[in-house]
Design goal:
By secondary structure, this protein is an alpha/beta fold. Helix content is about 40%, strand content about 25%. The strands form six sheets. It has a seven-stranded mixed sheet with strand order 15-16-17-14-13-19-20, with helices on both faces. The chain has a six-stranded mixed sheet with strand order 10-9-8-11-12-22, with helices on both faces. A three-stranded mixed sheet has the order 1-5-4, with no helix packed on it. α2 packs antiparallel against α4, α4 packs parallel to α5 and α9 packs across α10. It is globular, with a radius of gyration of 23 Å. The structure holds ligand TXE. Ligand TXE binds next to α7 and α8.
Amino acid sequence: MITVENLIGGKFSTTDLSLVDRSPSDGSIIASIPRTKSIDDAVEAANDAFESWSALSLNERADWLDKIANALESKSDELARLEALDTGKPLDVALNIDAKRSILNFRFFADFGRNMPAETFEMENATNFVIRKPVGIVGLISPWNLPLYLLSWKIAPALLMGNCIIAKPSEITPLTAHFLAQVCTEIGLPAGVLNIVHGLGPEVGHAIVSHPRIRAISFTGGTSTGRMVAATAAPMFKKLSLELGGKNASIVLEDADLEITIPGVVRASFLNSGQICLCGSKVLVHEDIYEEFIPLYLKAVADFNIGPVISEEHAQKVLSYIELAKQEGGEILAGGNRSNRLGAWIEPTVIAGLSHLSRTASEEIFGPVVTIHKFSTDEEALDMANCTEYGLAGSVWSKTRGMEVAKRVESGMVWVNTWLHRDLRVPFGGIKNSGVGREGGMWSIGFFSEAINICQMQH
Ligand code: TXE
């Protein structure tokens, strides 16, 4: 069994109370983790490290990001193995999605930092300089679906801009955050720059969100939790970035090229067992191609390899939605049951015949379950796509009208004839109840720095 420890001030430690981390594949205990309640020592460590870390140049901190990327890359197989063990996802997904993108997050922000243009604004008789100062100590809280992928997405720009960090990974998937802590210690990242604490959300998570010396919170997780985080942080005037839930539509117009659309929509439906906030869990298909689309889609679903969902508890939540779908009049076209494998395995499930206003088609399920709906006009498709409380992502599949329809999808991100094709320079985030703020490229730089203007008169 792995003993996961906190990294505070460059030292590993544990706590009197601990929690267990279970394998989604068979329910066995794979690690113990600290049940941290106080973060005062981590805040002190971050405070002690801040002056020297923020005094480094942008390029010196970019070099540190490259050192982390290089160290992770040299151990990417171990990183992928731990991520697959902790999340249950197939090893090839852990390697090609999670490990690869975790490394890229550090490398991308290293390069981005080195090539950031100076920000000046000339007046007739003065020059305005925009100076970017660090926020100070920042709190990063991440979920269980893409553990190091999403945590590194926050750590990299936060370090680049000179902040010191108190990070809290999900207690359900602590292994790769601990692995990162070990790697950063091995390469000599200065003590206290990156502190990683483990424990329960309402305990150590809340301690981070409510600590007065932590001046920015970047949170990824559920909308209901995001609401609690905002309620605590907003009155303290902390900077807040919330990447929350989604209920995204894959819109297939009548002129879609099914050669690319079928595999693309299946991947959007079931990648990571549907446990990505960007997944297309509502499949909207134009009536003219619906009869052709369904058998092709179901065949591709049957061939798509997925792992278990993250935990037995989450499996129960997902199965409850399948039962709800039946009560709401849905027709199960594929799946609908637990797989006969040990652990939290659920068959990829496709449900037809539901109103887009049904609870099943409106609420975030966050598992391998999609609802499929027929529409006759673009207007109808957009109503079906935009009717939920969420506004995170979506995709439109069409040879001629993708951009036109995509502009009318009420979400932060839309892909046309592709899905999850990511340029890390673009803004990433949602609208409505999918969150507040954007991260990615300059949006991450902006969030993890305080933009200061100095206006110099030319006499
Ligand atoms: O998220 P949580 P979970 C959605 C999805 C999923 C639901 C819950 O619907 O079923 O959210 O997933 C910490 N103060 N998404 O349980 O509970 C918690 O310890 C401070 C979408 O992962 O929001 C963890 O580290 N922190 C999402 C992190 O918040 C608290 C991806 C996320 O936990 C806290 C994952 C509190 N009071 C789930 N309570 C996406 N958008 O990608 C919990 N935490």
